[in-house]
Design goal:
By secondary structure, the chain is of the alpha/beta class. It has one domain (about 5-80): Conserved hypothetical protein from pyrococcus furiosus pfu- 392566-001, ParB domain (Alpha-Beta Complex), CATH 3.90.1530.10. It has three helices and five strands. It has helices at about 15-20, 25-35, 60-70; strands at about 5-10, 15, 45-50, 55-60, 75-80. Strands 1-5-3-4-2 form a five-stranded mixed β-sheet, with helices on one face.
Length: about 80
């Protein structure tokens, strides 16, 4: 079974503190430059949360780059959370 990327509203994606702490402006700038040159970025990973809606699992720099260029949506894969 092949997963298909779907569009998620950027404003509806919650970014956990753990990912915010890993934020590096230089990485966002790199992805922003790629977007400005017409490149397509790999989809981010999000999971469903009953309280927060969609929670970002991976792709904080891509998400912020899309936000920086004024995108309203981002391509992503909906993944299931693993219980540890």
């Amino acid at each position: 079974m092949v997963m298909e990327a779907q569009d998620f509203k950027i404003e509806d994606i919650y970014v956990p503190v753990k990912l915010k702490k890993a934020f590096e402006p230089a990485s966002v700038e790199k992805f922003t430059d790629l977007l400005m040159n017409g490149e397509t970025l790999a989809p981010v990973l999000v999971r469903k949360d009953p309280k927060k809606g969609h929670v970002l699992v991976k792709g904080v720099h891509r998400l912020e780059a899309c936000r920086d260029v004024g995108d309203v949506t981002i391509k992503g894969f909906l993944v299931h959370a693993r219980l540890t």
